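Quiz preparation item.
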C-alpha cells in the first residue's frame, strides 16, 4: 500500500488551539503545513476571470495572481515567486492543481512530501475543499466553548463581541457534527484540545493512524519547530506555542468571562458542551431576553451567510472534474 499524499486541513473555532496542532503536524518528517496563507478561497472564487486553464497564457495569469494576490499572506510561505510560477504553469489545467502546486512547492522547500493548510474557519468550506482536493483529510479540533469565547474576547482583532464569539463556537461545532455524519470513513477526524495537551502522545498517535502516517517523537515538541522557522513565519505563530505543551490554559475562562457571559454560553451551548464531555454546572442564572435575542440574530445571520456562500461556491466548482487537483 502506497504512503498517503493527500492534503491535510486543520479546522476549528478560532482560538481553539489549531496553531499548536498545526505545529505538531508540521513537526512530522512528511507533513508541511504553513501559517495561514488565505489565498486558496479568494483565488478559487476568481476562477472565471482566468478563463480556460488549458491555455498556457491563462495559467501564466493565474500564476501571477497567486504570487501577487493582495489581502492574503502568501509571503509567509517564504517561497521564490519564480519557482511558484513555474510550478503553476507546469501543473494540470485546473484551479485545484494550480493551488495545489503552490502548496507542493512549499512542502518540497521543507523537504516534505505531503502538504496541508490551516485556517480555522475552513469548517464552513469542507464541501468545496473536497471538490478541489478529493483525497483531502480534515482534522477538527474542539476546545471548551467557554475558553474559546474568553480567548476571542482578549483578542484586539476580535470585533464581534461575546454574542459573536458564542455564535462562532456553536456554528463551528454544528458544522463539524454535520461533516462527521456525512463524510466517508477516513476523511474526518475530531479531537479535543484538552485531551491533546493532557496526553499529546495518545492523541497524536491516534491522529497519525487516521492520516496513515507513523507517529514521530518530534511531534511532541512543536516549540522546537517554532524556534527554527524563518522569522517571517515565526512572528505569525502565537507566543503560547513556543513553550512546552501543557494544560495551563485549560479552564482559563473563569478569570475572563463575567457571570452574564458565562450564563449566555452555558444556556445556548450547554447541550453541545455536554456532548463534548465538558461539565456545565446547574443553577446559572438565565440570560436576559435581549442578550438571547442578540445571540440568536448573530447565529441566524452566520448560518445564512455560510449556506449562501456554499451555494455560490458549488456553482463555481461545476463541473467538479474541471476544478479538481490532478497533481
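Solution:
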Amino acid at each position: 500500500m502506497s504512503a498517503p499524499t493527500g492534503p491535510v486541513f486543520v479546522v476549528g473555532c478560532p482560538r481553539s488551539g489549531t496553531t499548536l496542532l498545526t505545529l505538531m503536524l508540521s513537526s512530522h518528517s512528511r507533513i508541511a503545513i504553513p501559517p495561514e496563507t488565505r489565498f486558496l478561497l479568494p483565488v478559487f472564487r476568481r476562477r472565471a476571470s482566468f478563463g480556460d486553464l488549458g491555455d498556457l497564457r491563462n495559467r501564466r495569469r493565474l500564476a501571477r495572481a497567486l504570487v501577487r494576490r493582495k489581502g492574503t499572506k502568501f509571503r509567509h510561505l517564504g517561497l521564490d515567486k519564480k519557482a511558484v510560477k513555474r510550478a503553476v504553469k507546469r501543473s494540470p489545467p485546473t484551479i485545484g492543481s494550480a493551488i495545489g502546486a503552490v502548496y507542493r512547492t512549499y512542502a518540497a522547500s521543507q523537504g516534505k512530501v505531503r502538504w496541508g493548510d490551516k485556517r480555522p474557519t475552513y469548517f464552513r468550506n469542507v464541501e468545496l475543499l473536497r471538490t478541489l482536493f478529493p483525497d483531502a483529510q480534515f482534522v477538527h479540533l474542539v476546545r471548551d466553548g467557554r475558553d474559546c469565547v474568553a480567548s476571542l474576547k482578549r483578542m484586539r482583532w476580535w470585533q464581534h463581541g461575546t454574542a459573536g464569539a458564542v455564535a462562532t463556537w456553536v456554528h463551528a461545532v454544528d458544522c463539524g457534527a454535520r461533516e462527521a455524519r456525512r463524510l466517508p470513513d477516513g476523511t474526518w477526524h475530531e479531537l479535543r484540545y484538552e485531551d491533546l495537551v493532557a496526553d499529546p502522545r495518545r492523541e497524536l498517535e491516534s491522529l497519525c493512524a487516521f492520516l496513515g502516517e507513523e507517529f514521530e517523537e518530534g511531534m511532541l515538541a512543536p516549540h522546537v519547530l517554532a524556534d527554527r522557522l524563518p522569522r517571517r513565519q515565526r512572528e505569525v505563530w502565537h507566543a503560547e506555542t513556543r513553550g512546552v505543551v501543557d494544560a495551563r490554559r485549560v479552564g482559563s475562562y473563569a478569570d475572563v468571562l463575567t457571570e452574564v457571559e458565562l450564563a449566555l454560553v452555558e444556556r445556548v451551548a450547554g447541550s453541545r458542551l455536554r456532548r463534548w464531555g465538558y461539565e456545565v454546572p446547574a443553577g446559572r442564572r438565565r440570560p436576559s431576553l435581549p442578550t438571547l435575542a442578540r445571540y440568536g440574530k448573530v447565529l441566524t445571520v452566520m448560518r445564512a451567510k455560510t449556506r449562501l456562500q456554499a451555494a455560490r461556491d458549488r456553482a463555481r466548482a461545476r463541473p467538479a472534474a474541471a476544478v479538481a487537483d490532478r497533481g
